[in-house]
Amino acid sequence: MSDNPLIPLPPAAEEDLVRRLQARDESAMTLFYDRYSAALYGVIFRIVKAEDEAEDVLQEALVKIWNAFASYDPNKGRLFTWVLNICRNLSIDKIRSRQHRVGSKTTGLDDSLTAQRQAAPTAFRPEHIGLQEITQKLIPEQRQIIDMLYFEGFTQSEVAEELNIPLGTVKTRARTAIKVLSKLIR
Amino acid sequence: MENIQDYIESGILEQYALGELSAAEQAAVEAQAASHPEIRAELEQVQAALGFYAEAHAITPPAAMRERVLNNVLAQISGPAATSSLRADVDAVAQTASRPVASAPQPVAANEAVVRPLSAAPVEVPASRSGWAIAASVALLLSLGGNMLLYSNWKSASSELVALQNEQARFATTSQVVEKKLGALQQENQVLRNDEFRAVALAGTKTAPTAHARVLFNPATHKVYVDVRSLPVLPADKQYQLWALDKGKPIDAGVLTVATATGEGLQHMKDIASAQTFAMTVEPAGGSAGPTLSTMTVVGNI
Fold it and tell me: Where are the bilayer-spanning segments (chain B) (predicted)?
């Protein structure tokens, strides 16, 4: 798995970074930025869909990662997973607070969904080999569900409601999609 | 747990990885993962799959963002400690600056030391009034002077910090370049130490008798590397091109970069299935479909 160019960091290098962050080595943040900023910025940008806000969220996330580092437990999972979740949560909070300002929650969700469907083609970058492979292997229904769950902050039941399909179908599609993705890693 | 497979198929691990669960539910999943290796493996797979999906959507942020974000982050994470110690310094200096002259009983801060004598003045004997005023003015001046000094120290400290941060950023870039070079060298070393590679010496022809190069050819994997010892320098619009001759038929093995032609290191060329001879000719930049035999510079048989 370590020779896959899409996996950002070999475990040994990740361990070294974790040790330095645990030792409160501020210079490790530069290294962290160089290693992870593209992946994190990509996810944040897909969720908030505005460059200036994505930059704010990335900055906020880096400060949070530094301040909350004591709560990261390497035994529970990889550093990359942990920081991805922090970035996703901050981004989703951001769009939720934005929707809150605009109006009631339901119309906010509807708006964001249509916005997402329109935004998808421009955000799609076929030159990225990993993404191209994914679009070939995932059927559109699976990709839509994964995008809603991962980039829109929907829960599985919210997806079921939004797309008007049974919850069981959402679960099956999400599981199948994730299976397809994990096969692509190998 | 009666049935691990049911648990896995319930979709709860996906919910966990997507962050849909409450803190209590999360803790329950973590406990299951800790006691059942199968569940843990499945969870890791789900997380890796989502990480892969995220990574596939990577966007390199604008270059200008790096310094902006890193400077802000570093200022914030080292900020609180630096400010509070600075505040303590200011207080300490203000205290020592005002103490000898004003000799106020509790000069907690410069302002207090200045204000107290003035407001206390009317109660005092009129004659000492001007004495207090002078003392207060001197205290104020000293305190202002102290503040100026601190301010200029602080300014130069913060510009030094920015300079250091820039230097650090440059250092990080340099070390990346070095890492990349090291990677290339390791790869070269692997080729050089691999017994499967056959070294083919290419000697200079009449046009360039001192020219000398080597080709490393692996007949099993068809990999070809070229290693230049000495070749005449070419004008900018010309490039050396390597050819493999298989039963007399020339096959293009690619053109040499300027770095390779000046002997900087090995260059990985096009794969060649079979060859008995390698040769290099001078061709227009970008290479030619067939060799210009009159420009043949080096040649050698396997």
Answer: none
